[in-house]
Amino acid sequence: MAEQLTKSLLENKIRIKEMFGDCVDFYTKDVTLCGCRCCICMFEGLSSIERLWIMMLDILSQPHELRREPEDLFDYLMRRTAIPLESRSCVCFDDVRTQLTAGTSVILIDGVAQAVVLSTQSMQFRSVSEPSGEGNVRGSREGFTELLRVNLSLVRRLIRTGDLVVETMTAGERTQTELAMLYHRQLAPKALVETIRRKLRTAQLPFVFDTGYLAPFLQSKRFSFFQSVGYTERSDTAAAKICEGKIIVMANGSPFAMIVPYFFTENFASMDDYSEKAYFASLVRLFKYTAFFLAVLLQGVFVSVATFTPELLPDTMLYKIAAGEQATPLPLFLEALLVTFLLEIVREAGLRLPRPIGHSVSLVAALIVGDAAVNAGLLSTPVVIAAALSAICTFVVPSLYEPITVLRSLFVLAGGIFGPIGIAALLFCMVLNLCGMDSFGVPYLSPVAPPSRIVWNDGIVRANWRKLAAENFSVSDLPSETWGDD
Fold first, then answer.
1. From residue 73, how far is each of 5, 13, 64, 70, 175 by CA, in Å?
2. 73: burial class by Cβ within 10 Å (0-12, 13-18, 19+)?
3. Distance (Å, whole) CA 122 – CA 104
4. Which residue from 206, 188, 308 is spatially nearest to 249, judged by alpha carbons?
5. Is 452 exposed, middle or buried (0-12, 13-18, 19+ CB in 10 A)?
6. What pLDDT digit, counting tens, does each position of 288-340 carry?
């Protein structure tokens, strides 16, 4: 049971100082308000001292309305002042810790076993700006920031109905990170909401700094290269998913909101699809599906055909591949793996280094490493071209970058060692794995497999808005025997 506040101001002060230790940013000041001994506690940088003293001046300017008793002062502060206070007072030290680390100020009154909480938050945070990883031609330019309350306000501005529910909880034993679960009261399946709530509250983590830390606790324990949760930095995307009956999970300190459940087809959709003509949006989605399979299969199929069935290639291409291979010391599939390795190294270097240097690394790798490797006879030109096309296709579906990278390497190995049989076997295993996945009781490939009428409305292709508005689909329309069984 949580330790309760006492009526002794000295005991409360000692206990709170023991809780935070000798922190240089922890500010306390003893004051006398209307004859009552009090202590103000706050964290500099999280709370505003200027706002705090403006509020205190409002109290001190009306001393004639107060009786000089601690209970009367507490009652006056809570019920009869115009200063902004939290609706609930603190009754235990855990409440005090939570409020102080959230940026509020706490007033302890000698003789009262409760603490008054003043709304003096003044935390510095990155301003709302356009998300860097989800560029759209049309639509909102607002992206989430690291402050949870700001992110909640961005979603609340877009869904202005009473059906938007926001539940908060904490996770991380050492950090006590605040989480928020957002869903639509009428559209989100109740069993799904209860399952997500239970899994978030029972997640055993020492610390949480991003929503990705929670993903393993929400997904099935069965191994898969793909995951049944998604992420977004865009407030309009999060609002759209809520209106589809899905659940959004946010964590304080992270600009990435988690989408639950998340299906395979959603990796190929974007907010631009709903602002453009239906035929063009459908064409773009088909391009994305094609790019995904090219990114996964192109290098492996090229290695397999060139090594085991070269008679399938045109004569001119075959001669060029044979000439290139004679000038290189490595087998074809090792060349493909080497090029993939170099591409990933270049990407990682450009990603981790400061931006001005990162662009230089990519340029140097393209002009010097790639060109020099081909001229020196370490790599053949056809292998480099196949790897470059695979990399470009990977960037078309950025949310699937991790599984595409691993699967591409596996297909190169399978094609180089076992040939067409290896490619076919691995492709069968990949499709089987996708078909065997489920996201909280719903097949991961929904609405494609099992087939659903939604697939021709907003699945592989997109219908026009007249039809979408008339059908008014939500996640509860997907086939599921029991929501929440993951």
1. 17, 19, 12, 5, 34
2. buried
3. 9
4. 188
5. middle
6. 999 999 999 999 999 999 989 888 888 888 888 888 777 788 888 888 898 88
Residue 258 banded pLDDT, cuts 50, 70, 90? very high
Helix intervals (H) in 309-370: 315-326, 332-352, 355-364
What amino acid is encoded at 200 in this protein?
A: L
What is residue 212's three-state secondary structure?
A: helix
pTM: 0.85
Looking at residue 152, what is its pLDDT?
94
Q: Could you read off the pLDDT of 162-202 as tens digits, one per residue?
A: 899 999 999 998 888 999 999 999 999 999 999 999 999 99
- Hey, which residues does 230 pair with through a beta bridge? 259
Q: Do residues 184 and 163 lie in contact, with contact meaning Cβ atoms separated by under 8 Å?
A: yes
Name, in order, each residue with C-beta under 8 angstroms of 236's C-beta and a sequence gap of 6 or more.
139, 140, 142, 158, 271
- Count the helices and strands in the chain (H runs, E runs): 18, 11
Tokens representing 107?
């007033």
Least confident of 71-80, 106-115, 235-244, 284-293: 71-80
d(CA 405, CA 482): 34
Q: How far is residue 162's CA from residue 98's CA, in Å, rounded to a whole number?
A: 27
